[in-house]
Amino acid sequence: MTLDFTTLSPRDAYNWMINAITPRPIAWVSTISAAGQTNLAPFSFFQGACANPPTLLFIGANDRHGKKKDSVVNVEQVPEFVVNLVPFALAESMNQTAAPLPHGESEFEKFNIATTPSLNVRPPRVAAAPVAFECKLDRIVHIGEGPLASNVVFGTIICAHISESVLGADGTIDQHKLDTIGRMGGDYYTRTTELFTIARPR
User: Fold this and answer.
1) CB-based contact 66:146 (threshold 8 Å)
2) Cβ pair 30, 46 in contact under 8 A
3) In 10 A of CB 28, how many CB atoms?
4) What's the pLDDT at 8?
5) Residue 201: CB atoms within 10 Å
6) How many CB atoms lie under 10 A from the CB of residue 96?
7) 190 has which bridge partners?
8) Cβ distance 143 to 57 under 8 Å?
9) pTM for the predicted model, two decimal places
């Protein structure tokens, strides 16, 4: 089977991509508007981008009407955000925050998700997240126009909060304790509890 992506509708292209590009890590992004209203939303188009300077990215696709996500609008107003990682224990809470709420209504408050203040940025972080990256906006790259076009948000990592509960005896993150989840296609997710190792070639 060969798919000609130049002939696919944006919705069909999106469906093929999210079902094939798996698993995708989830950025649970907290932002704040110029009016001081907090927002929390999950994005599975997310990745580390650079170590010098330490940079990550998440991608907020426009909705079916071509409207930007609240997270992107907020970052344009207040150029700071926090990327919270999602462990299995917070999967249901994360999923709730994917609901389309009216602009300005806080997912933290709506779904009773506990916050804790950040040190260097205004948006709060998810109190129970095992890892949270405080970021300052580097740039936003707009790709395409209209429905399902994307806004690629690059953030410079200012600091990270790492729970003692996921650290090993050597003081680094123990992959067996982190237990994060990844996005698959449709309503499917995966969990990072089945691990294997392969030695990298020298």
Assistant:
1) yes
2) no
3) 25
4) 94
5) 4
6) 15
7) 182
8) no
9) 0.94
